[in-house]
Amino acid sequence: MARFAETLAIIAAAHRQIGVEEDLARGGAGGTAKDWVDAQADGLAALAQLDWPLGDGGWRDRAARATPTLVVLAKGALDHLPGSETTGSSRTSRGSTPRAEFNTLAGEALPLVHGVDVVAVGKLLDARFPWFTDLTALLLRDLANGGVARLRNTLAVSPPGSGKTSYLQAFCEAAGIPCVLYNAAGVADAAFGGTSRQWSTGRASVPLQTIQRLRVANPVIIIDEIEKAGTRSENGRLTDSLIALLEPAGSRAFHEVYLETNADLSGTQFLATANGTGGVPGPLLDRFRVVHVGLPRAEDLPVAAANLVAELRDERGLDAGWLPDLDGDELHLLARVWKGGSLRPLRRAVTTLLDGRETLARRH
User: Fold this and answer.
1) Residue 21: how many CB atoms within 10 A of its CB?
2) Of 24, 46, 64, the domain-final residue
3) CATH number at residue 176
4) Of 298, 363, 356, 296, the residue nearest 326 (C-alpha)
5) Given this model, what pLDDT does residue 51 score?
6) Is 263 left (phi over 0), alpha (psi -120 to 50) or beta?
7) What range does the domain containing 8 cover?
8) Cβ atoms < 10 Å from Cβ of 42
9) Are residues 110 and 214 in the same domain?
10) Buried-most residue among 26, 95, 276, 313 (CB within 10 A)?
11) Phi, psi torsion values for 142, nearest 5 degrees
12) pLDDT digits over 50-76, tens only?
């Protein structure tokens, strides 16, 4: 009886913290990353005390031993479609049938990314994006149980130039979770949720295409600039497709119009960015954890500049031997023209410095 009473007390404590989170999120207003972290801390600590046994070492032991998988398309789910299982499957062409295109998923137990090393990820991200430390802590709390990677639907809001899109991609890479970037700016239809095969442009939903390509059941889809998605409804809207996918019940049995069957897309994780919440419909905001993040600070210059140099190396196909990091004198020059804020003017300044290096090298 004492154990039962203790359990109820723990659940009550966690429930109170959930209430705090709901207060922060009500109306889509959101909170700062630090607000979210503080609200979650006590509730997570309380829930961590629970460890009901399963007869063989407790639920944590069993979770650690299990190989998590998810069947996205049930076996036989495509049998109603015309064509064979292999017609056109060896090539990407108009001759490829939907059945052949997705048959390899039918009945297959796809792996779920799990067991993320949150300590290692935190150290890496804090070193590379020190102005996003609170957001890093918040996202890592979603992964802290060591089980299947399941990030809450999160919308990162900041003024332009904070580096939030690059940050979210870097977070997924560090956590070992495959991700794709979907630019919402200017999208004026509902093709994200799939289109009927009666049209020549018919295709499956973006989540199902992503799962098929990456062969993992819980990828992350980053919706970039979500506030810039089209609002006219003649051809459907991206936001309408997203609302269905962001609901647990809707994603678990999402109707793929292209395949005329349901798919379990519940493992798909959604992160999004916006420069402001003004253009995001209320029903969509209600389904996201809205987190307001800041711009880089003046003291972040060495790290931010190093990130930009690394990006420029990749773009130019060079290694550190040909394009080394900025030295102290170069950083001093940058500090005179960049006092924190958007990374875009800093990128222009870094590019100018690097181009100046090349000019001087050619003269000598």
Assistant:
1) 17
2) 64
3) 3.40.50.300
4) 356
5) 46
6) beta
7) 2-64
8) 14
9) yes
10) 313
11) -65, -25
12) 444 444 455 455 545 578 999 999 999
